[in-house]
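Handover notes (outgoing to incoming on-call)

Open items:
1. SPP1 gp7 family putative phage head morphogenesis protein: sequence verified, structure written out, both below. Nothing else pending on this one.
2. Nothing else urgent.
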Amino acid sequence: MTAVLKPLPPREAIAALRRRRQTLAPTFAWQDVYAAEHAAMFTVAKSAGYDILTDILAGLETALKDGGTLRDFTRDLTPILQQKGWWGRKAVVDPETGEPVLAQLGSPRRLQTIFDVNMRVSYAAGHWSQFQRTKAARPYLRYVAILDERTRPEHAARHNLCLPVDHPYWKTWAPPCGWNCRCTLQSLSERDVERMRSQLKFTPPPDEYREWTNKRTGEVRSVPVGIDPGWDYNPGEAGHLATLQKLEAKYDRRGQGLLFGELPKEWPKGPETPEAAEELASEIDRAQREWTDSLDEDKLDAIAFYKAEGHRLANRLLRDGWYGLNGEEDDAEIEAAKEMTADLHRALKTAAFPRTVTTFRGVDADTAEQFAKLEPGDLFLDKGFYSSSLYEPIAQAFGDFVVETRVPKGAHAVALVHYIPDVNHVEYEVLLDAGYRFRVIEKTEDRLVLEVITGREDEA
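SPP1 gp7 family putative phage head morphogenesis protein structure tokens:
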């Protein structure tokens, strides 16, 4: 299988932003909602008295989902805010004092700040979810600063600092660490750390502190030098934890995981013996018999076509189009393959896999090289039908590099049992419909662990 990489919306970042929609908090000054409180609610300073928070939040969600730019965000939002009167400098009443003050409401610069802060915090929450999910395989975080004249000296001093994911240092020094901070965190495996050891630093620089008084609340805080007041917390962790708390009641402990992509606590292991694999395949076959009985002759022919030799041509056409042809196919063969592929897609679209399973796929060196380019947290789209085995030893007969795949209950997939002459074995195949997205969970030298993301491309 050729891995077709396609940029996809950052689901964890979008989810973190959407959780804040549940608590919209109009405020007068940014100090009214401080530090980690921002992660659990959505607010904009000087928004009190104006019905604008929903509009701004919708604009941010659109930007995250569609890859929109600041220019798009400003262009679409400006006329809405102007119509609602939230624009320019105006006299507004401070609810704390009851006194009128001249305040800057909407402006291109305000929208730039709103866009920058919320996008960075949303991405930080999404990244922290990934860090927590993949820390078994990538247990370290590296602080990455952009080393130019705009970077704060304290941030530059922490460039290449490497500490465990759960180190308490990240509770304070986790980007963004201030207004317009461009620093990020990068997850590393043990192997990465060994390879980069000469560049990395494993002891944090000593912190200096300054006292800062919140003029709105009177609270006095000690803030590390180099971190702006209001940013002395971990935006990613706070957003991640706030999301987890709100989703806790929705956790499906039967194996579906948290709504925004968190892995379930346990995934089933693959069968350890041929007899266990046969028993599992038989159980799935019985569960999907009603679906099989509902198929018409065209759909049954399409499955038979795929199980024979049709999978090669079908997937070349789906993944690469005309470029996937080798020139040996005649027009009739191509048209027949297209028709069979369409029938197979229609058949699988009505299937719902009866249980959550872990499957395995052995791949050749060329495909393994493509998979090796992926990193934990990456998303990719497979335009073709995805085939894997319930029994790992059979998968290993096709290649030393194994792709372990976590297929959720309800996926548009079917279990097929058939004999494969190439490896002289009965194959207990799980065939997943074309157009599914996958998330990389773990990666080692000889294995990649994937999670099937519920919903195909045409269902997004």
